[in-house]
Amino acid sequence: MGNKQEMQELIAKRAAKELTGPCVVNLGIGIPTLVAKFIEDDHVYLHTENGLLGVIDVEEDDIDPNLVNAGKLPVGEAVGAAYFNSAESFAMIRGKHVDAAILGVLQVDQTGSIANWAVPGKNIMGVGGAMDLLVGAKKVIVTTTHTSKDGKSKILKECTYPITSTRSVDMIITELAVFEVVDKTLKLVERMPGVTIEEVREKTEADFTE
User: Fold this and answer.
1) Among residues 49, 77, 88, 198, which one is catalytic?
2) In 57-191, at which residue ranges do the beta strands (DSSP E only) sit?
3) pLDDT digits over 15-69, tens only?
4) CATH H-level, domain 4-209: superfamily
5) What is the rounded distance in angstroms from the CA atom of residue 123 to the CA atom of residue 125?
6) pTM of the entire predicted model
7) What angle do CA 15, 21, 22 make, to 5 degrees?
8) Domain ranges in the chain?
9) Any catalytic annotation for residue 49?
10) pLDDT, tens digit, 9 for 90 and up, residues 139-191
């Protein structure tokens, strides 16, 4: 596998293939923000918790410092974009008006439960909209590197960090493989180009079927 950026873009590009319009999609922090670069369907409308529907990528010369997504990264606005306050934005999520959410995670387990908001003993950004999206989004896709920086599997038999919600995600996409979560079990549905089943097995702690 290439450098970190190439690996993240491979994951994001594969996630973008899951998005078919017309649909409203929320992109989480981290790898999910890269998905916007690879969406080719003009009827996929990006939503951000801080109050914008119609998020698009922005060139460096066109950056407006006041226009950012929930991760504080600069974004652009599509023609016909809509602004609203944060309460209305979360009402959209909780009211099931978001068709898909793509989330980053710290861990995911073999039942599809994820941990992405807290590390015991560490002060990180906090939950953001993740809990709401897991409850309200119609489909939830996880994008993550298959292993942590120290080489340990991030796809576990059971999460060791606090889980974000009791709802299972629908799909997990890494630089090695794509899993679907069916009845709280993992099914391997695709391997990334050049990846062997042996490598997937070696780097996945969780049980899965093929």
Assistant:
1) 49
2) 76-83, 100-104, 107-109, 114-115, 139-143, 155-156, 171-173, 177-182, 185-191
3) 999 999 999 999 998 899 999 999 999 999 999 999 999 999 888 889 999 899 8
4) Glutaconate Coenzyme A-transferase (3.40.1080.10)
5) 7
6) 0.93
7) 140
8) 4-209
9) yes
10) 999 999 999 999 999 999 999 999 999 999 999 999 999 999 999 999 999 99
